[in-house]
Amino acid sequence: MISSRPMRDSEYPGYLEYFLPDYAAEISTNYGLSSLEALVQAKREIAHDLPYGVDTPGEVVLCVVNRTSDTESVVGYLWYRPDLAARSAFIKDFHIFAQHQGKGLGKQALNALEAELSRAGFEQIKLRVAEDNKRAKHVYETTGFRVTGVNMSKTIKSGL
């Protein structure tokens, strides 16, 4: 059974080990920064967004777990920011480990999150997904998400 639980302090370094290079690659691809510049930006943003790690107020950082009758194994991560006034949650990061992808665990995790948020009175889940992330887009679309906008950017050439 797929569910989630709060990430432990001891698990946070492992999360950063996955998140920083992954996010830096996205920054590099989307904004044309070098790998080093993108990694510096990713580190700066995570330090700003999660200054107290898993204990950062207003942020929810979870481990996605697969529970059986006698074991619990972490199969991914989920980070979201609840907006109580708007009764919505914004997913900032969602990742199922590569060895567990393609098994429906991402869909199960999103459905479990939706049920938990619904019980807490939330009415909407929002997120941003990179245009070229076909696997994630498929998971989101099959769990009922729809496109509500498009992010765009343009690099300004210096000296013009």
Short description:
The chain has helices spanning about 10-30, 35-50, 105-120, 135-140; strands at about 1-5, 60-65, 70-85, 90-95, 125.
CATH architecture: 3-Layer(aba) Sandwich
Structure summary, number of beta strands: 5
CATH class division: Alpha Beta
End-to-end separation in angstroms reads 57 Å
Unreliable spans: none
What is the molecular shape?
globular
What does this structure look like?
Pfam families: Acetyltransf_1 (PF00583). Residues 2-160 form the N-acetyltransferase domain. It comes from Phyllobacterium brassicacearum. InterPro entries: Acyl_CoA_acyltransferase (IPR016181), GNAT_dom (IPR000182), YpeA/RimI_acetyltransf (IPR050680). This is GNAT family N-acetyltransferase. The chain is an alpha+beta fold and 160 residues long. The protein has a single domain (2-142), classed as Aminopeptidase. 37% of the residues lie in helices and 24% in strands. The chain contains 4 helices and 5 strands, in the order E-H-H-E-E-E-H-E-H. It has a 5-stranded mixed sheet, covered by helices on one side. Strand 3 (72-83) and strand 4 form a beta hairpin. Helix 1 crosses helix 2. The longest helix is centred in the N-terminal third of the chain and has 20 residues, at 12-31. It is globular. The termini are far apart.
Key features of this structure:
globular; about 160 residues; 4 helices; about 35% helix; Aminopeptidase; alpha+beta; single chain; 5-stranded mixed beta sheet
Helix and strand layout, with pairings?
Layout: E1 2-6, H1 12-31, H2 35-49, E2 60-67, E3 72-83, E4 88-96, H3 105-119, E5 124-127, H4 134-142
Parallel strand pairs: 4-5
Antiparallel strand pairs: 1-2, 2-3, 3-4
